[in-house]
Amino acid sequence: MREVIIIGSGPAGFTAAIYAARAQLTPLLVASSLETGGELMKTTEVENFPGFPEGIMGPDLMGKLQEQAERFGTEVIYDDAISIDIAGPVKKVTLENGGTVEASALIFATGSAYRTLGLAEEEALSGHGLSWCATCDGFFFRDKTIAVVGGGDSAMEEATFLTRFASKVYVIHRRDSLRASKIMQQRAFDNEKIEFVWNSDVVAILGDTEVSGVRLRSTGDGSERDLALDGLFVAIGNDPRTHLVHGLLDLNPDGTIALQGRSTKTSVAGVFAAGDVADPTYRQAITAAGSGAAAAIDAEHYLAARGTETAHAEQPGRGDLSR
Ligand code: NAP
């Protein structure tokens, strides 16, 4: 049995792994079957992670965190956790491949998932002019007219990035002021290719097989109008990815995992949470990384308190992890 399993491969997960590995807890990190690295894999330049005065590309930062975690003995498996059993002292994680892994402590760092507009046509048009990732799909909109929905940092970042390709980028926001940080707002305001569409809700995405526009409803007088577009990017925030722990861990009213005081301890002994999945407030790469470090330290203290036998627990055979 392992000492620590970490679920999630964003800044929180890999920082927890670095700390747990350096504490010689030989952590196993369940990354994902699709993409390791979390949301930063979909961003461009990260300018506010300390230590990189010139900025660093999101995927490069995640690559470095993984390299650092593996250097100290973290084992990464590229699979999805599909269920967990955490009631007893042994925490069991079932993987998509059918295997199970067990540990005395579990760190939950599953991050958050993109929020959708909740429109019926979203599923059909996703990948057909509708996207949640400017860095992934921006290239397809060279010299096109597109729009970004949202008023936070993500929307400003996406809109600014997309002006590299598109000839025109509308930012559609439901209010008349932005939630984004001042520097990100100013960058968007200063960009000649960006035009703001204020006080507007997207009530329909138009197009049968490809996005051809959106129907907007004024939040003031309720009037509707259509805006012709070649593409639409949705950047309206994220929701904590907690589907694995529903009914198992206490959650806050906003859906994040509830923690005890300033610790990373959840409502179940031996289970810790870090990063966006437990953070309704800060949700930055650096705060996620910081909470990942705290979770590893909390897990280390928990294991030490349980007795030295857990610190020398047997490693599982790798056979049970193979597909
Ligand atoms: P966010 O700050 O929660 O902003 C979401 C935006 O989408 C808000 O403007 C919100 O409008 C709007 N919105 C939410 N639901 C909507 C809906 N159903 N229809 C239309 N609009 C909707 O999310 P975020 O921009 O993804 O940022 C998340 C966190 O990551 C933040 O802490 C942010 O600072 C951080 N972040 C940082 C950077 C950076 O520093 N480089 C980049 C990206 C993200 P209201 O304003 O009316 O609520």
TrEMBL record:
EC numbers: 1.8.1.9
FAD/NAD(P)-binding domain sequence ranges: 3-292
Name the record gives this protein: Thioredoxin reductase
Keyword Cytoplasm in annotation: no
Known catalytic reactions: [thioredoxin]-dithiol + NADP(+) = [thioredoxin]-disulfide + NADPH + H(+)
GO biological-process terms attached to the record: removal of superoxide radicals
GO cellular component: cytoplasm
Quaternary structure and interacting proteins, as annotated: Homodimer.
Cofactor: FAD
UniProt cofactor note: Binds 1 FAD per subunit.
Family: Belongs to the class-II pyridine nucleotide-disulfide oxidoreductase family.
